[in-house]
């Protein structure tokens, strides 16, 4: 029985030594992947305590690795969606390795800036679209280009908020405003000529008033 107990303890000791070696190697790899300083294990305590401490540290670093990769994946999904709407290039990051904390922080700030840009362009688009629709109704203008139809008829969420589209939207608004200003100038000139002709022809005020509503 004593021999069996000794053999069992020797077997346990061998397993613990193997586990310690494997844990040290795994810790070394994880520290490199996570860009951390080299891990220094505490030599105090029993072999069993050392093995448990190393195994616990491995589990903690493995969780950090999973968390970083999951956050990277979530940021990439947001980045793709925003770049599709804004027509901007994707954020450059090495997806083959575990991102550092600095990389993730930089990526977060990049995605936040894209979200802010999206909201800014969306607000500008909605404001300009409302003015464009009012001007088209006032000018009795029917959208006759694909861009004008996209602006007026398509759902707001489907409109690509690229820099080129925002510039084209501003140009369209300026063109319509220029047409309205031209029409107003022509109308003012015609009204002045009508008023002058009324005076020359000595048209009664009642007849003038009935025509003035038009």
Automatic annotation (TrEMBL):
GO CC annotations, alphabetized: cytoplasm; mitotic spindle midzone
Protein name: PRC1 regulator
Entry's transmembrane regions: none
Gene Ontology terms describing biological process: mitotic spindle midzone assembly
Domain of life where this protein originates: Eukaryota
Species whose genome carries this gene: Phainopepla nitens
Coiled-coil annotated spans: 159-193
A GO molecular function held by the record: microtubule binding
Coiled coil keyword on record: yes
Sorted UniProt keywords: Coiled coil
């Amino acid at each position: 029985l004593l021999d069996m107990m000794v053999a069992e303890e020797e077997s346990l000791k061998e397993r613990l030594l193997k586990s310690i070696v494997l844990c040290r190697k795994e810790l070394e790899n994880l520290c490199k992947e996570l860009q951390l300083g080299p891990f220094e294990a505490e030599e105090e305590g029993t072999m069993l305590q050392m093995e448990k401490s190393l195994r616990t540290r491995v589990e903690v670093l493995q969780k950090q690795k999973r968390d970083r990769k999951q956050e990277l994946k979530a940021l990439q999904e947001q980045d793709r969606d925003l770049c599709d709407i804004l027509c901007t290039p994707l954020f450059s990051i090495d997806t083959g390795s575990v991102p550092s904390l600095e990389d993730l922080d930089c990526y977060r700030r990049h995605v936040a800036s894209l979200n802010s840009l999206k909201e800014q362009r969306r607000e500008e688009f909605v404001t300009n679209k409302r003015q464009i629709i009012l001007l088209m109704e006032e000018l009795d203008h029917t959208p006759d280009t694909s861009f004008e139809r996209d602006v007026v008829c398509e759902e707001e969420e489907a409109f690509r908020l690229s820099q080129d589209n925002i510039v084209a939207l501003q140009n369209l608004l300026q063109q319509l405003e220029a047409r309205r200003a031209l029409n107003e100038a022509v109308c003012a000139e015609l009204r002045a000529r009508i008023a002058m002709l009324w005076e020359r022809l000595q048209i009664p005020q009642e007849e003038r008033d009935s025509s003035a509503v038009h």
